[in-house]
């Protein structure tokens, strides 16, 4: 449930941007929660042909969400798979890489910088209340070198985050998701989920959790975490006999690749604070309705947050942190030469006698 404020914080962080292929707006709001644990990333020009958008919904602290917002897209870019054109593989590697980078002295130091505060007596930071007795090894690459220090054996944070990321290159959309944030696309007004909510009671998740030595109680992994996949949460990833994708909780993302078409209007990335209140289709319908009178996409996002915000904390729904990114696709424009050819063709067609309409 989390700790609630007596009055919600409704101030919003909002942003808009665009390029030749798309435009986007985003907004985030703390709401009734005592702290803001969401983070996001929006890079319409990750490189000359690629856009990157991500929503990270933290739990147990905000540091892992902030870490992913700072580094995950950078690791996608650095991947050999990305250079080779395999966006799905580069995203999967980047998700696992987040857990690797947060281990050891350097990971601890970076999380300490991103965290709210350090306890002067214990040296521990927000969400970092558990540490292993022995080193798990530090398999670090050259761009994230191992550092000696008092936290060299730090196995990573017990706080964690969901990660729902969309990468757009030309007419290709690749979605990577771990957790219960969600990506939805609107195609001719119809909502299509491009990610799956990773809840512990899903059969494929339950099977992995039990095989790894975990259990599910009251819909939560080991009675505490209501997600089956997440970045961070290293206390659930300590089975030394299993690979990263077979742990009780895994950062392994589902990858969904979609070929965009002219019927695709926009996509939405949002944390579960919004999906708890609106179904995918309800949100798509609401966005369509707002776009009839509002052109600024961040304003549309702000209105969604206001609509989802609960009037009180009695029920729980509408009381979470909320973050939403709205990406609208631009329709491809014709080159001047193609437009001139089309114009000439239309003129010729108009000068020719039209066939008589058939009678029904």
From TrEMBL:
Residues 23-329 form the PPM-type phosphatase domain. GO terms for molecular function: metal ion binding; protein serine/threonine phosphatase activity. PANTHER family: PROTEIN PHOSPHATASE 2C, PROTEIN PHOSPHATASE 2C 60-RELATED. Keywords: Hydrolase, Magnesium, Manganese, Metal-binding, Protein phosphatase. Coiled coil: none annotated. SMART domains: PP2C_SIG, PP2Cc. Its cofactor is Mg(2+); Mn(2+). It comes from the Eukaryota. The keyword Magnesium applies. Gene3D superfamilies: PPM-type phosphatase domain. The keyword Cytoplasm does not apply. It comes from Acacia crassicarpa (northern wattle). Belongs to the PP2C family. Its EC number is 3.1.3.16. This is protein-serine/threonine phosphatase.
């Amino acid at each position: 449930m989390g700790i609630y404020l007596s009055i919600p914080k409704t101030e919003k962080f909002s942003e808009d941007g665009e390029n030749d292929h798309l435009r986007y707006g985003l907004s985030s709001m703390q709401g009734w929660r005592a702290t803001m644990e969401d983070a996001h990333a929006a890079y319409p020009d990750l490189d000359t042909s690629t856009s990157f958008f991500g929503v990270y919904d933290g739990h147990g602290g905000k540091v892992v969400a902030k870490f992913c917002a700072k580094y995950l897209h950078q690791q996608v870019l650095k991947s050999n798979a990305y250079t080779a054109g395999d966006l799905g593989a580069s995203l999967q590697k980047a998700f696992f890489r987040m857990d690797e980078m947060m281990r050891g002295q350097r990971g601890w130091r970076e999380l300490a910088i991103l965290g709210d505060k350090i306890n002067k007596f214990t040296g521990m930071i927000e969400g970092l209340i558990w540490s292993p007795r022995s080193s798990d090894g530090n398999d670090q690459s050259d761009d994230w070198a191992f550092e000696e220090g008092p936290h060299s054996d730090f196995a990573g944070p017990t706080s964690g985050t969901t990660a729902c990321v969309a990468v757009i290159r030309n007419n290709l959309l690749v979605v990577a998701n771990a957790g219960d944030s969600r990506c939805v696309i609107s195609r001719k007004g119809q909502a299509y989920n491009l990610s799956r909510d990773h809840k512990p009671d899903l059969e494929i998740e339950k099977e992995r959790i039990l095989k790894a030595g975990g259990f599910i109680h009251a819909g939560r992994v080991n009675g505490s975490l209501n997600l089956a996949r997440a970045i961070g949460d290293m206390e659930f990833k300590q089975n030394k006999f299993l690979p990263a994708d077979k742990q009780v909780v895994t950062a392994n993302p589902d990858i969904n690749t979609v070929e965009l078409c002219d019927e695709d209007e926009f996509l939405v990335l949002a944390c579960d604070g919004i999906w708890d209140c609106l179904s995918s289709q309800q949100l798509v319908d609401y966005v369509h309705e707002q776009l009839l009178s509002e052109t600024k996409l961040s304003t549309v996002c702000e209105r969604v947050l206001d609509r989802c915000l609960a009037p009180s904390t009695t029920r729980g729904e509408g009381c979470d942190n909320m973050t939403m990114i709205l990406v609208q696709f631009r329709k491809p424009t014709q080159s001047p030469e193609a437009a001139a050819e089309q114009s000439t063709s239309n003129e010729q067609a108009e000068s020719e006698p039209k066939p008589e309409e058939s009678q029904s």
